[in-house]
Amino acid sequence: MEAIWNLILASTFIVVLYEGAFCQGIPSGFVLLNQPYTFPVNASGCHHAEWRKMPGTTIATYKNHVCMTAKGLEEDFTCEHNHLLLISSQYTDQGLYEFICNGVKTSLILDVLYALYKSVEETDNITLNCYALSAKDVKWLHNKESVLYYKMNGSVNPGKGFERRAMLANNCFKTGNFSLTISRVRKADAGLYRCFVDSETVKGNPHAYVLDVNEKNSDPGDQTHSSCNEAILIVLTVVLGLISGISVTCLIKIKLRDRQSMSTSERDTTETDHMPIPAMSTASPVSESQSVITHPVQESEFMGEKPSNTRPIL
């Protein structure tokens, strides 16, 4: 029973703390459980500075350019580049912190998140559950950017990149189910998601998720389809290779045939140019030649009948 009362009191304190911080405009930060967190304020411009966790516990001091962690907190906090570093956040580390620099106070609310881890493949849909009572509006955040802001009057404002992909149930205010559904998940959707209601003053339950987006894996059907495509591609490659080979062979044969024809023609022309005259002469010249060759005696006889111009020597 005592544990239940402690839980109720702790929840009430957190709600009051967040409502007060929202009304006063106190900035807030968040960190996942067991993760480090660096407080944003820097002490390098301070002569004297101090970090406190309210209601008034001093965590570290800064003086003469030296940062010192309070005794007993060395395992939880340290100074790094003039910033206060929470080494590994625990659930009890959430709350209101103050930084005082030269008498000027700056406040910060730290939220330590216990997040549920979700995994989804690209292009699939994912639903992140969130429930709340008597909410007037709901807002989902991705890291620090808005995913969807939905009011009871029906007003819907999707965040950049989530248009027509982020949605809630139409009767969410009636049922208290403010679960977010993201369709056609992208790689860029990975990260931290948080659910708030009533102008981000109240956390939904569950409140935070870490979404991991994996590359799409092929199912057996896709593998079969892929195998078929590969087989078709191989067949087409072989066919095209055969066609190319046949085409090249035909071209080579045509080239060889043309070359042989040209060689034969050149050889015939050469033989014709070197052929003996009788072989190239027509019938008539051959007859004349033969008559000249076959009648040398006649030519001699005619030569004998000619008067001689030689006179005897007296």
UniProtKB/TrEMBL annotation:
What GO biological process, any one, is recorded here? immune response
Signal peptide coordinates: 1-23
Q: Which GO terms describe its cellular component?
A: external side of plasma membrane
Matching SMART domains:
IG, IGc2
Ranges for the region named Disordered are 261-290
Instruction: Extract the InterPro entries matched here.
Output: Ig-like_dom, Ig-like_dom_sf, Ig-like_fold, Ig_sub, Ig_sub2, Ig_V-set, T-cell_Activation_Regulation
Q: What is its main location?
A: membrane
Q: Which residues form the Ig-like domain?
A: 120-212
Membrane-topology descriptor: Single-pass type I membrane protein
Keywords, comma-separated and alphabetical: Cell membrane, Disulfide bond, Glycoprotein, Immunoglobulin domain, Membrane, Receptor, Signal, Transmembrane, Transmembrane helix
The membrane-spanning stretches of this chain are: 231-252
Question: Compositional bias of type Polar residues: which residue ranges?
Answer: 281-290
Q: Where in the cell is it found?
A: Cell membrane
Compositionally biased tracts (Basic and acidic residues):
261-274
| Matches recorded under PANTHER family | BUTYROPHILIN SUBFAMILY 2 MEMBER A2-LIKE-RELATED, T-LYMPHOCYTE ACTIVATION ANTIGEN
Report what the protein is called.
Uncharacterized protein LOC113116569
Q: Which organism is it from?
A: Carassius auratus
Q: What is the lineage of its organism?
A: Eukaryota, Metazoa, Chordata, Craniata, Vertebrata
Q: Gene behind this chain?
A: LOC113116569
